[in-house]
Amino acid sequence: MRLAEIKATNMDLTGPIRDYVDEKLSNVAKLTEKFEPCDVRVEVGRTTMGQLKGDVFRCELNLTIPGVMLRSEVTKDDLYASIDVAVGELRRQVKDYKEKLRDADRVKMDTEIFEQDEEY
Description:
With 120 residues, this protein is α+β, with helices and mostly antiparallel strands. Helix content is 38%, strand content 28%.
């Protein structure tokens, strides 16, 4: 999995924030090893500049896997908590997608062709 872009909105993107995102996304990277071109785009930041209380920190993750795009967006009162929850949601979506693919491989296509005698 390749980190294609990391963007900060209404705040500065510091080294510790970037390192924290990389560390958390390593768990998702383990799940996406078998998917060849796999990119993730991250946007972290504040929802507004003036608001000090409430859910002001936002994390958005967009994971592109061949054939599907998985997306997670969370708003919390702490930046690191929003990153944790968004990565957890993305991880769950990747697991569900892999399970869906696995179940699709298990389905047997048993079709029987019945021949009918046609009488006119």
